[in-house]
Please model this.
Amino acid sequence: MVNGIIPPPIQAPSVPEASKSPLFYVSQKILGLSSHVTRWLILIALLLFIIAILSFWFSRQSFSDKNVQLKLEGPAEASAGDEVSYKVTYANNTNITLKNLSFVFFYPDGSAIIKDGALQEDQTDTFVVDSLNAGQSEEKELKAFLVGNRGDIKKAKVNLVFKAGTFKSQFEKTEEVSTTITKTPVALSLVAPPSFVGGQKLTYILDYRNESDNEINNLRFEFSFPDGFTFISADMAPTSGNNVWDIAKVKKDGRGRISIQGILNGREGDAKTITVNLQRKLMDTYIPYEKAFSDTVISSPLLGLAVTANGDTDYIANPGEKITYIIKYKNISTYSLSGLNLTVKLSGDMYDYPSINTQGGFFNDTTKTITWNSGSVPLFGNLQPNALGEIRFFVKLKTAFPENTDSGREFSVRADSQLITINVPSDFPTDEISTSASNITKITSKPTIRQLGYYNDPQFGSSGPLPPQVGKETLFTIHWQLSNPGNALRDTKVVGILPTGISWKNLADTVGAPTLVFDPNTSTVTWAVDDLPQGIGINSEKYEASFQIGATPSSLQMGDKITLIKGVQFSGTDSFTNANLLIKARDLTSDNLIDRPKEGKVQ
Model:
C-alpha cells in the first residue's frame, strides 16, 4: 500500500481464442511450434479457405449473356423489288465456350427468296453452330428481294438459342431491323368499283407506269380474282389462262393499261378483293416485285332471278325424262325497269332439243338459247318496283347416253339464265342492269342387266333331255350380262334365287368382275361386282357371269315349264348422283332359252 492506495492484482496476459482450440494444442505438441507461430498459421489457413470459396463462387457467377453479342444489320431504305442483304453478327465476349447455337432468321413478310435458282416458299432460314469459343466472333449474310408498296416497313428478325459452359438452362437473344420501301420502280393503280350490284358486268382497270431511270424488261402481271368472278374478256389478250399478262419491256416513263371485264356475283355485304402481283424475270424464275389490290362491296341487287328443274334446284333426272323449267323473276329495286330481255342457254348433249316447248320464247338452234322480250312477256316492257313473274318451258332428255364418250365422264345438263336491260337510271354507275342464275341437273346412270338361258352352252355344253322329263336331270347354263353407258357405279351386285328342285352344279365363270358365290342355306347366287365403270358394254366388253344349274322335274310339273331362277335383282349406287339403283329381271324358265326356245315343258 502506498499512501493508502491498494494496487490492483496482477493478471496473466490474455490468450487468443484460437490458441485455446484443439488445433492450437496439437500443432504445438506435434510441430513443437510456439503459440505465436501457431496462431498465425491458423489464421493464414482460414484466409486461404475463404479465398478459395469466394473464387469458386465468383467464377460461377462471372458468366453473363449480356456479353454474348447478337447483331442484325440491314438497309434502312430500299426500293420495291430490290435485293437486300442482311448481316448477322454473333460474338462470344465471355470466358467460357458457347454450345449448340441455333439461329432462326425471319425474312420480311412477302419477301422473295431465291435458293438454288428456285423461289423458296418458306419465309425463314435456319442454321446451327456447334460451338463458339471465348473471344470468337462470326457473321452470316442472307439475301432476299423486298416486295411491297411505297411506305411499307419491312421487318427482318433473327432469334438465337444457345447453351453456355456447364449451365443446364438455355439462353435466348433476339434482334430485328426495319427497312422502309421508299420507291416503287413501277407505279401501280388498280381500280375497282367500291360498291357493286351482284350479277352485273364490271370492269377492273390496271394502270402502270415506269418511274425508274431505266427501261424495265420482262415484267409479268398476275391477277388473283375474287370468288364469284367470271372472266369475260380483256382489252389485251392474256399470256396464260385468263389472269396472266407478260410485258416484254416498259421504257423509262412508259405506261400501259389492262382492262378486264367479267361478272361478279356474291351476297349483299360481301367484300370482294382483286389483287395483282407484279413480277420480274430473274434466272428463268419470276419473282414478286410489287403488289396492288382493290375492294368491292356487293350491294343490294336490283333484279332477282331463280331457276328450278321439276320444282327443285338440285334435281336428279333419269334418261328420257321430261324437264319442266320454271324461271322466277322480280324487280327488287325502287326503279321502274323497261326493255328487259330474258335469255336461257341450254348446255348438254343429253337434251332432246327438238322436244323443246318455249312457251312463247324464241329458240336459236345455233346457240341453243331461248329469248323472251316484251313482245312475249308484256311485263318486260315496264317492270315496276316489287313486280314479279315466272316463265316456264319444257324439254325432254334423251333416252340413251351418247356412245364413245370419255371414260370417267359424268352426265348432266345445264340451264344458264340472264335477265338484262340497257335502259338504266341516270344515277346508276354501269351501262346495264342484269342478273343471272343457273341450274345444273344431274342425270342418273341407266345400267342394264341381260339374263340369258342356254341348253347347249358353248362353254359348259349340255346334258339331259330337252324337253325335260320327269325324274331325269337336265343341265342348263344361265348368263348375266352387265352394261353401263352412264356414270360409274359403286357397290354393284346381282343376286338371284334358285327355286326348289333346282341344284347348283358348282360350275361358274366370270369376265371382268369377281366370281360368283352360292349360299346353299338361302339358295342364293350372288355376283358382287362392286365397281362398274362408265362405258362398260358400250366402249368395252360387257361384264359377264355364267353358271350351270340342274333341273329334275317331278310328276306334278308335267306339262309345265320349269322356273330355273327367280328374284334376280341388280343394285348399285351412282357415283355422281349418289342415287341408289335397283333393276329387276324377269324369272328365267326352261321355255325361253336362247338356243332351244319353246321346248321347255316337262314331259
